[in-house]
Amino acid sequence: MQQPLAYRMRPTTIEEVVGQQQLVGEGKIINRMVKAKMLSSMILYGPPGTGKTSIASAIAGSTKYAFRKLNAATDSKKDLQIVAEEAKMSGTVILLLDEIHRLDKVKQDFLLPLLESGQVVLIGATTENPYISINPAIRSRTQIFEVHPLSPDDIKTAVNRALSDKERGLGNVKVNLSDPALNFLSQSTNGDLRSALNGLELAVKSTSADRENVINISLPIIEECVQRKAITQDKDGDAHYDVISAFQKSIRGSDVDAALHYMGRLIEGGDLQSISRRLMVIAYEDIGMANLAACSRTVEAIEAANKLGFPEARIPLADTVIELCLSPKSNSGMTAIDAALSDIRSGLSGEIPNHLKDAHYSGAKKLGHGTTYKYPHDFPNDWIKQQYLPDKLAGTQYYKPKQTSRFERAYGERYQALRAAQTK
């Protein structure tokens, strides 16, 4: 039986890894470990299909170390013992331990000395937050790296590679994948490369060739093979971004029903990634200081939605959209930081006042750094008048409070009172 395309296309070297360039790109931490052959045990956490197993197999392929794969939930201590014996006989073994958050104490106690000695380089893979779900004894002996859903461009790169690879991929078959089909495949799988390659392979194997022996894969075929509809797409892919734009503008305009409608389109397209990112942007850009608690609740809802997955994810997402629509609105935080950045980019920085400079090193006192700083907690109400902005920016006001909610009105009153006290 032939192995699935996603399995066959796993990278054999670190350079072949698609995505996760913040970890495996030139000069980045895992790339450096591989080049120096100074591997440390690590935990990779993130959604399914984002490359955790691929990174592990690429590390093994690049270093030429033996590579073994076990599952913390289903494999036994005896399976770990076999890996340990192999490490004693042949040297370092890289062990990919899937679902590491389900590692029990017996297996953990067996693993710990192997990690200490370096005989086994553990690469734990999990979809759970390791800071919450993994025992501190394991965490303290590993480096923790988060992996992210792949971008549509990453998916396209991997799909095109699979279509052209004659040894492991589909390169020996004449396949014509239409641009709309490729765009949809790269966006509808939400950064899950495994799903994209599985859908591609099913489409190719289940579609008859034409008279020229070419297998033509159209958008409807890909829709059927990944079981999602291109509701947010058009021929050029522009409609996807139009829906996202309409989604944000509907929340900004406080129209609950329109916002739910546009999110419904994104849900039907299976686009949890776009919904999650856009809701966090909306919360802090459009609601912000008017209701910071709603911003925090949005982050919690998105975390719940990503753990649940569809269809249940629609419930916390809908609750959040309704709250954001009906919440008071304010973009004062965004406009404040943009105003500060505008000054900085225009060259209006100025020298930091001496009393604010670091005084924790030998010679700082001779330079007058930090010597006249007044520690606010030593004064009544934990505040004392002193200048914080550089001289050329003294008195500049970036934050301009809005009056749309009692929360920001309260912050605004405090802000204005402090400014008045500072300038007296």
From TrEMBL:
Gene3D superfamilies: 1.10.8.60, 1.20.272.10, DNA polymerase III clamp loader subunits, C-terminal domain (1.10.3710.10), P-loop containing nucleotide triphosphate hydrolases (3.40.50.300). Residues 38-150 form the AAA+ ATPase domain. It comes from the Bacteria. GO terms for molecular function: ATP binding; ATP hydrolysis activity; DNA binding; enzyme activator activity; single-stranded DNA helicase activity. Keywords: ATP-binding, Nucleotide-binding. Signal peptide: none annotated. One of its GO terms (biological process) is DNA synthesis involved in DNA repair. Belongs to the AAA ATPase family. RarA/MGS1/WRNIP1 subfamily. This is Replication-associated recombination protein A.
